[in-house]
Amino acid sequence: MTCQTDLFKLDSRLVDQNQRLLQHLNTGRTCSRETNQLLSEIFGYQLDPTNEIRLPFHTDYGRNIKLGKNIFINCNVTMIDIGTIKIGDDVIIGPDTTLLTTDYSTSKEKPIVIGENVNIGGHVTILPGVTIGQGAIIIAGSVVTTDIEENVTVSGNPAHIIKEGNK
What we know:
Shape: globular
Largest sheet: 7 strands, mixed
Number of strands: 16
Distance between the termini: 49 Å
Helix content: 10-25%
Strand content: 25-35%
Radius of gyration: 16 Å
Number of helices: 2
């Protein structure tokens, strides 16, 4: 049985399917081809072969995640995609990172957009509605609460600029 409110009008069949696929993905023994096939079923489109997602991987819906090319997502990443999550090309996401498109305290979901050539360290939390500009670097352990400009390095809770001009 799926726990959801009228607030997040998700197709409960897709949520249930996503959970079954994730359980198989995260607990079974699969080769890279099988892993990519299961992830493609979760996302609802064919995962680009240049992308690598290390397991375990967690999402509540899956269909609202849009990935570019040449993306590396390390282990234990969670994407709460009630709202859309768009990730550009050439992005690295460190382990134990969480992307949240809702905090469940309001009736709104807000998209997350990550530009191209972004490097996100481990244990980072990105809150709803955040856009991260191209070429940004998010230092491990940061909590990103507001939009991040292009080509800057940020760190802290809340994340703030510590260096400008990443190139």
